[in-house]
Automatic annotation (TrEMBL):
One term of GO molecular function: ATP binding
Full protein name: Urea transport system ATP-binding protein
Cellular compartments per GO CC: plasma membrane
Keywords linked to the UniProt accession: ATP-binding, Nucleotide-binding, Transport
Pfam families assigned: ABC_tran (PF00005)
UniProt KW Transport keyword: yes
SMART domains with a match to the protein in the record: AAA
Amino acid sequence: MTLLELRNVQKKYGDYAAIDDFSLSVQEGELRCLLGPNGAGKTTCMDLIVGRQRVSGGQILLRGEDTTAQAEHQIVRRGVGRKFQVPAVFKELSVRDNLEVAFGRNKDPFRNMAVFKRSAGIARFDEVMEMIGLHDRRYAIAGLLSHGETQWLEIGMVLMQNPSLLLMDEPTAGMTERETYKTSQILNALKGAHTLIVVEHDMSFVREIADVVTVMHQGKLLAQGTIQEIEAHAKVKEVYLGEEGIH
């Protein structure tokens, strides 16, 4: 079943088209990787999906319903979560407190923490802690976590709301090889129960997680297919991977 569909989407800034007649269809439970050189339009595409920016033309549909004109908070309530490249955690709070704050959708963190105290919040906390593997760090102050642990905590914060669609912008940026491997395990475990769109540059990581790869170039769709098909694609090699590919 199609969860997300972009139909001939455009995003213009004056005469410049950051997204130019771009279409995309993502199936429920799929992990889609979005690749492309800098300036290809990947992050702008994510912004449009979640309502952070408005499209200049075309349609965005979530489970067949047009969300093109909806505000960001409305789209979030429809089950769309977003993790940015730079983690946004409360550094002075513990891991547990960060997850409590993220459980509700109110702007007031204290109201969210009050909602968390109900059994549903505690049960979700246990599930998320299992997913991100930070059980032994639950009382650690977030500002003292390693870079990888901070990234996993933010993934956990998004997961506290149990989104059906999870958008991630370069989740392995700055990670060690060991941290990157653990992140691939986390994302692979989320597939099926969640649908994921991941913007990433690390091709070895993409090989580990992607069901389907979409490559953008100058705001347009350049290529789409399995990782093997993408790495063998002549035009992708020319504009992104290089003639020898990325290993």
